[in-house]
Amino acid sequence: MLEFLRGREVLVAGWGVSGRSLIEPLQDIGAKPVVTDGGAKALAEAAELGLEVATSADLEHTDWSRFALVITSPGWRPDSPVLVSAVSEGIPVWGDVEFAWWVDQARIYGEVRKWLVVTGTNGKTTTTSMVHSILRAAGIASVACGNIGLPILDALRRNPGPQVLAVELSSFQLHWAPSVRPEAGVVLNVAEDHLDWHGGLDAYAAAKARALVGRVGVVGLDDPVAASLARKSKAKRTVGFRIGVPADGELGVVDGKLLDRAFTKAAILAETKEISPPGPAGVADALAAAALTRAIDVAPQFVREGLVEHKVGPHRAAFVRELGGVEFVDDSKATNPHAARSSILAHPHVVWVAGGQLKGAGVEDLIEEVADRLVAAVLIGTDAEVIASALARHAPEVPVVELASGDYAGMGDDDSGRAGADEVMAQAVRAAAGLARHGDTVLLAPAAASLDMFADYTHRGRSFAAAVHTLEDGDIGRRL
Fold first, then answer.
1. What 3-state class would DSSP assign to 72?
2. How many other CB atoms sit within 10 Å of the CB of residue 40?
């Protein structure tokens, strides 16, 4: 099925992590990779490895018939000039995930694996990690891969290889992977995000729905958009999960226990108090992970064992420190309002540290819903004023500190800019500590992307944690 590539050139569009992972598999099947990228440094790195490279200018004058295939990195939009040219010349365009699927189906690196696919606006990485933990507990050779960090092709090339892949996929990756048919796939939730890339919520949801085309599809029933995808699911069987009493064919929660009524009459899987991260979002992710693994007949005792052993990753509702009866929690990964909502609702009294790039997402509904949880808010980043205005309308009694609301463009681009971002975060943390009282949680749940100030969300989370560790008892409750 990949024989058409043997002896032919394949254009690799994008020299990122996924682009690099393509090179050896392409060479293993006898194809010749040619790398293109918008950055001169990236092309120089590829050339140093002995690979042929092509600039966009080179491709304007190329004979496209030389290429059997174009494999694009997931971030490249369909209207990118290189991809538009390829399509217009009749050259197929695949994503790296699509290529990985066909490499697996062709048994290039051993027997075909079972794919358990996780997608959604929020909770993907936590759920994927939970799936991997459950599979380990069951003694099933597995690996967490995809958008979680390890390219799928690198996972396939492992020796000994995994039997099951826990695959986190973004909407971008799913858009470019129309052939993938997972053993089981879940859509956790769908909220406004990446709408500029997809062109609207309907197209974004449609990309997510590509997880629901295999043997078992799973949807989050507490999320209206995800739940609506059940009616459109192309999976042979579709089940749902909810944080509430499950009906037949669902997983849910009864008396503090996770219950499976989808794959058996009734089986207790775990207790909510055993789930990390705590709170509704963590429980929902655990139900999704349970559904995927129960779909391949993992026994309930291994589901529980895996969920108990799972610990939340860094910057995902991670506890940083307790000081003076105040807890400090880093949820820098809450990069949109939907994620921030789940994070805030996990705590009764929150001093909210928020702000960054909203990317066009609205915060009005979020603030209206969580207003009674907010003790105070400390805002940073380019869209701090947008959040401050929404707080003034929907939570006027909540004290707001807005720091350096100016042009942050480029602040995270170099070492000096990052130092400036760290300084702003230190001010924010000190202000938040001063607004907190015993029993409160100072919560970094930005509801926004980080790139206006920081290198990425991990830098933002590290900056928050570092600032928290400089605090002393006297900083708590001392209004600045």
1. strand
2. 10
pLDDT digits (tens, 9 = 90+) for 41-52: 999 999 999 999
Instruction: Give the H/E segment covering residue 32.
Output: strand 32-36
Tokens representing 195 are 């709408």
Q: Rounded to a whole number, what is the distance in angstroms from the first to the last CA of the chain?
A: 66
Structure tokens given for 136: 């380990």
Question: Which H/E stretch holds residue 322?
Answer: strand 318-323
In contact, 165 and 114? CB cutoff 8 Å:
yes
Question: Taking the CB of residue 196, how many other CB atoms lie within 10 A of it?
Answer: 10
Give residue-wise pLDDT tens across range 322-363.
999 999 999 999 999 988 998 898 889 999 999 999 988 889
Question: Among residues 431, 394, 411, which one has the least CA distance to residue 444?
Answer: 431
Distances in Å between the alpha carbon of 469 and those of 328, 443, 474? 10, 14, 13
Scan for tokens 């078992």, then name that residue. Answer: 216
Q: Rounded to an integer, what distance in angstroms lies between the CA atom of residue 130 and that of residue 293? A: 10
Helix, strand or coil, per DSSP, at residue 392 = helix
At residue 249, what are phi and psi to the nearest 5 degrees? 85, 10
pLDDT at 419 over 70: no
pTM of this structure: 0.76
Return the structure tokens found at 109: 């690196």
**419 to each of 234, 413, 415, 459, how far by Cα in Å?**
49, 10, 6, 11
Sign for the pseudo-dihedral over CA of 74, 80, 86, 92: positive
